[in-house]
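FW: tagging you since you asked about this chain on Friday. Here's the raw sequence from the shared folder, copied in full. Didn't touch anything.
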Amino acid sequence: MWNNFQVFRLTKIMGQNEKNFQTALNNLAKGKLTRKDLTLFKSRTFTKTPKKQNLHKAIHLFPRNQDVDAYNVKVLKKIKGEETSCTASDVFHGHGSQLAKRQMEYSISESIPHQTMGLCKSLSLKVGAIYMVTYNIDTQDGICNGATGVLKKIQSIWNKSQRR
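HL: got it, structure written out here
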């Protein structure tokens, strides 16, 4: 993939032809902004905020996973329709003892998604919700970190009595 890219070395500062702006940027990098620098930055700031109705389409970034989880629960509650929970069913293969299998089951049940390549023990699903892939699964097919999609249909392949 990287063979498709060309390297261009940037040797000239293009966006800083104004001496005042260049000085303000350098002061910003050093953490020593002056009042003059702040006034200059504020003069180039857009104050118009996006319409609230369009904010649900934006990707929201959060500093902590628990903030992400809380936001996702809030958004799912706003979507009309039935919520379905999809719970993982872990199966162990091999010749381990029953004790080893129980320890593995406990270890997995106590895991958090970033320890299991983004896999949750339980995932809430709702038709119409936007979901995002958080790990590269098949980059050639576009199933990669950051890819999003809207859930269109939930079809059960077995009924509750058939589950293991």
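FW: The two ends are 42 Å apart (CA to CA).
HL: agreed, and Residues 15-45 form one domain.
FW: great, closing this out.
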